[in-house]
């Protein structure tokens, strides 16, 4: 597994008349840990949604390893274009089947034969309509397959967690994580129904991935407990494990420390570093400043849907624009500066809704 780079270029997301993300551009180097911070409603989660295909960007582009995310599926799109061409060709072949003179005639005579066939043979128009229908259906299929959707983003090697827990509480911890390995199940439905060797092999690999992810986050000792019986901090780690089971090259964490106590949040610092060391690029949204300052190599600050600052943790922490965006104007600048320079004081500032 090799870490992936991320390049966001002039991305905007507009809902009706509301611009939630406004021409945002930034780069995430492969193998790095980058944090995104900002006040509530700054557009951070909306930007994550645009990157992962939940929302279609209104403008701009997202590149993975220098390639547009949609272009990851160029080969698939080309294969479906070939299906379209094949369907059109099949329609033509059906028409030609009613015109035995076509192969022996010149082009001019052939077109004349087609004209006569349409006049005198009612079967030929129906054959032409069938070919047209097949071609149109294949074209729609190609369009659907070329869209940037979350499942294609996942297959490209991008996984994420969400602000709110999205676990199957009645399933075991292990089964929750095994679901994340679904994209690696290459066997088809028939193979699964008949329990063919290919399906059994895929299932074995999925179990291995699930166990490895649980060991990485430190939950292998509770693998067979129901997910709903875990502590809140462990449930947060479980979501990270499920995202890791997908086998990502880029991992997006949306407030992984939300709701955790200070000790649980700080314990995420070595975990995120370990994830990075396993060849995964990490981009996280977080309000817990001790976590951000302790793990991030770069910090991007969003405010009102735009990039306010981008730099090292020390540079961002000392930026007066960042202090103002979080804590108000000059009359509040003194306590704001103190909080910004003291990660503990600003360790928890609430959940993001942007």
Give a structural overview:
With 354 residues, this protein is of the alpha/beta class. The protein has three domains: 169 residues, Rossmann fold; 73 residues, no CATH class; 81 residues, no CATH class. The protein is 48% helix and 17% strand. The strands form two sheets. Strands 6-7-8-3-9-10 form a six-stranded mixed β-sheet, with helices on both faces. Strands 2-1-4-5 form a four-stranded antiparallel β-sheet, with helices on one face. Strand 9 and strand 10 form a beta hairpin. The C terminus is likely disordered.
Descriptive terms for the model:
single chain; 354 residues; alpha/beta; Rossmann fold; 3 domains; six-stranded mixed beta sheet; four-stranded antiparallel beta sheet; 17% strand; disordered C terminus
Quick recap of the structure?
With 354 residues, the chain is α/β, with parallel strands linked by helices.
Classify the secondary structure makeup into a structural class.
alpha/beta
- Compute the number of strand runs: 10
CATH class of the largest domain: Alpha Beta
**What is the 3D form?**
globular
Low-confidence stretches: 71-78, 98-105, 330-353
Protein topology:
Blueprint lengths: L5 E10 L2 E11 L4 E5 L6 H8 L7 E6 L2 E2 L5 H24 L9 H14 L2 H24 L3 H6 L2 E3 L12 H7 L9 H6 L2 H21 L14 H14 L4 E5 L7 H16 L3 E5 L3 H7 L2 E6 L2 E6 L1 H5 L2 H8 L5 H9 L13
Parallel strand pairs: 3-8, 3-9, 6-7, 7-8
Antiparallel strand pairs: 1-2, 1-4, 4-5, 9-10
Helix pairs in contact: 2-4, 6-8, 6-9, 8-9, 10-11, 13-14
